[in-house]
Amino acid sequence: MTQQNGISRDIFRGAEKIEIFGRLPSLLWSYIDIARNLIQDLKTKPNSDSPAMPKVRRMLEILDSAADHLENRKLKDRLNKQLNMLTSLGAGKLSGGFVDSFEAELSTLAELAGQRVDTSSSGLLDPASLELDMQKGERIKSGRSADLIVNVAILDDVRNYLTQEILTDGVSSVLIIDNAGTLIVNIGTKPSLDATSLAAVAAANYAATQQIARLIGEQDFVLLFYKGLNESFHFCRVGEEFIIVTVFENSLSLGLLRLKIAEAAAVLEKKLPKRQA
């Protein structure tokens, strides 16, 4: 692609490939939706500047960055073709057939994006939802959201609650992480646990399984369970922003643990902060 703003081009720096891959279908559909808005504007007022154009270019930069990190040449070539058409449009070098050609390219991108689950009756995202989706993609750059702050008082409250209610015999570690893989709380008696790495991998795992859920018509999986020879891992979502990761011995009843974690998730959802709109 042509020279881009450095911030936009590097938004996925430091992210795992599996995390980027998990976000890709949603980002592709976001781009397709705003590009269709652009097409509608051009059909209505062919000679005027569309307010959708800056968002179209912004999403192209985000997708180009994703394609670079995934080393997806097929996607990158498609995105380059889109950008070249938009550049020619801005320079007044395209004929009246631009809309049909551009729309045909969007159909090809839709095939790459795969089936979407969250379509509305109009087929287009409302502006507020679209803006939020683009912001979520950009926030991957920093690894955590600037508007999501967990202060010391909340951390102490959460630690005390988990210690009293969850950290019982058979449970060696309990972690609270956010969707970006940032470790929020880590308590327990397992000093060998690399909690930071586990937080990053767990978040990437959820990003991938979310796409699996959508393929079978679900929005998300609320919990995951992995059984080892001696110890097992239990992952449970808390609201939309956090995940509880529990490491426990196989001698502990899974049913009892699930009951305790479900209760804890409901309590923690009220204690932990929510993203500001």
Number of helices, where a helix is a run of at least 4 consecutive DSSP H or I residues: 9
Tell me the series of helices and strands, N- to C-terminal: HHHHHHHEEHEEEH
Class per helix and strand makeup: alpha+beta
User: Main β-sheet: number of strands, strand sense, barrel status?
Assistant: 5 strands, antiparallel
- Count of distinct strands: 5
> Could you say how many structural domains there are in total?
2
Low-confidence sequence ranges: 1-9, 117-127, 137-147
Distance between the amino and carboxyl termini? 32 Å
The gyration radius over C-alpha positions equals 22 Å
The gross shape turns out to be elongated
Q: Strand portion, in percent?
A: 5-15%
What does this structure look like?
The N terminus is likely disordered. The protein has 9 helices and 5 strands. Strand 3 and strand 4 form a beta hairpin. The chain folds into 2 domains: 134 residues, no CATH class; 120 residues, 2-Layer Sandwich (Beta-Lactamase), CATH 3.30.450.30. It has a 5-stranded antiparallel beta sheet. It is elongated. It is α+β, with helices and mostly antiparallel strands and 277 residues long. The longest helix has 28 residues.
Characteristics of this structure?
54% helix; 5 strands; alpha+beta; 277 residues; five-stranded antiparallel beta sheet; 2 domains; disordered N terminus; Beta-Lactamase
Fold topology:
Elements: H1 6-9, H2 17-44, H3 53-70, H4 73-90, H5 98-113, H6 127-139, H7 152-165, E1 171-178, E2 183-188, H8 195-215, E3 223-227, E4 231-238, E5 242-249, H9 254-271
Helix pairs in contact: 2-3, 2-5, 2-6, 2-8, 3-4, 4-5, 7-9
